[in-house]
Amino acid sequence: MIKPFSFTGARKIVFGTGSFEKLAEHIGALKGHRPLIVLDKNLAAAGFVKKVTDVLDGRGFKVSFFEQAEPEPKLELVDEGAKFALKHKCDLIVGIGGGSAMDLAKAVAAVAGNKGKAADYLGLNKVPGPGLPTIMVPTTAGTGSEVTFTAVFVRQNLKKKEGMNSPFLYPEIALLDPALTLSLPPEPTATTGLDALCHAIESYTSINASPMSEMISLEAIRLISDHLRTCVHNGGNLVAREQMLLGSLYAGLGLANAGVTAVHSLSYPLGGKYGVPHGLANTLLLPHVMAFNLPGNLEKFAIIAEVMGEDADEMPLREAAWHAVEAVEALIEDCGIYTTLEDLDIPKEAFGDMAKMAMTVARPLENNPRKLTIEDAVEIYEEAY
Fold first, then answer.
1. What global pTM score does this model have?
2. Is residue 315 part of a domain?
3. Does 105 share its domain with 157?
């Protein structure tokens, strides 16, 4: 039997090479006059402000820029951005960059629109009402934040990551232009792409997956496994970049509807306590969590192996499922990511505390296809060491 399900996402998705050139039209359609552009620091340094102003020039907008987005953003940035938006009387927020920039933009819109404090909105359904309208523009094929209801931040005083999770964070428009990803260097192309693969695999194997989310997540796995290698090693290939951004979009939709699993719970302490970038933390842990989760749904992992190109037709089910882990490990290796916890100077003696912290990230663990204990978490960290 099919259990009842719902499916949600960004209110409008616009995809296509060159679509960024229509940004002004989308701002106008949302009745925006004073847009705030929340921009990744690296993009700002690379001259992206001019690219935005060229697109918006002559349209009569009063444009402000908040160029403070950074990897693993601090929660305090949300309140700073909201204060900046209110000071400049902004009526719409555009987030441009990777997941951190878009998360910051979504949260700034929520806080400014509700005139609250960021810390009060952490958790599930704590945002009291609609924020300022938002347009999200990804420049990486990675997080899928342009179509999710989540924004994640580091609370420095607690040395942990926490998220805002509310349907009011869904963007009005997700504007995806593959051309914006062409200049992304190989390493961030790899880690953001593998992060998208993680979202696709986790959402596909989540116990909350539905027939609709499964279809989208599985196609994301196929697109990413088929095209990520090309994007990493031949980044100017626009066809591969288009397919990767589409895969990332699908992974984000799967994530938003089925949720993620234990990889995310275990990665939070790496980001919150040690500052490990989110995509890298997920990449490092993904094959180890997959290996642990195999008994929870051998059939799905065998299908993942097949979709990733493994010839497992004549194999026993468990052996076929194991090939999914091997396929992911091969993709990680081919993308040039060899990092271990030891490489990142994460001390073994910290694994117990990390496991305790991971167990507090409850929602992904509830979605996991196999029950995970604190002892299991420690063992997975040891395997990743």
1. 0.95
2. yes
3. yes
Please say whether the beta carbons of 253 and 213 come within 8 A.
yes
Bridge partners, 160 (sequence order):
155
Q: What is the residue whose two structure tokens read 């020039």?
A: 57
25 is written with which tokens?
């039209």
- Alpha-carbon torsion 320, 324, 325, 328, what sign? positive
Rounded (10°) angle between helices 186-205 and 211-233: 160
Give whole-number Cα distances, 72 to 105, 137, 154, 246, in Å. Answer: 14, 18, 6, 24
Instruction: Tell me if 7 is assigned to some domain.
Output: no
**Taking residues 177-201, what's their average pLDDT?**
96
Q: Which amino acid is at 220?
A: A
**What is the predicted pLDDT for the residue at 356?**
95
Q: Are residues 175 and 202 in the same domain?
A: no
Q: Which of 166, 181, 196 is the last residue of a domain?
A: 181
CB atoms within 10 A of CB 87: 10
Decide if pLDDT at 379 tops 90.
Answer: yes
**Lowest mean pLDDT segment, chosen from 8-22, 152-166, 169-183, 294-308:** 152-166
How far is residue 290 CA from its own chain's centroid? 18
